[in-house]
Amino acid sequence: MVKLKGGAPANFLDVGGGTNKDKVKAAFKLILSDGTTKAVLVNIFGGIVKCDVIAAGILAAVEEMHLTIPVVVRLEGTNVELGLSMLAESGLGLHTAEDLNSAAELVVKLAEGV
Length: 114
Prior knowledge:
By secondary structure, the protein is α/β, with parallel strands linked by helices. It has helices at 21-31, 51-65, 80-89, 100-112, and strands spanning 40-46, 71-77, 95-96.
């Protein structure tokens, strides 16, 4: 989807159904390890994994790593309202999108501004 919107994805990572906050943090560290990442798009359709768990991991990663690049998050599934609320109330400047199409559009736009 990012490619269709004019971007060049550098990585794809599936955290899987048995993920937790620490695994999400580790995923961020892995994705950002080369130092050339311009933006991060997190797209979760959570049935097994809960959106609030993903949100907690994203918040922990952003805070711990002192991220300055844009992070766009699209959540859908179990506990989506709680997850989105956690992101919005964090004060960390994270971007959210309601669907993958708009998330991909936004992450490409933000990456171009970096």
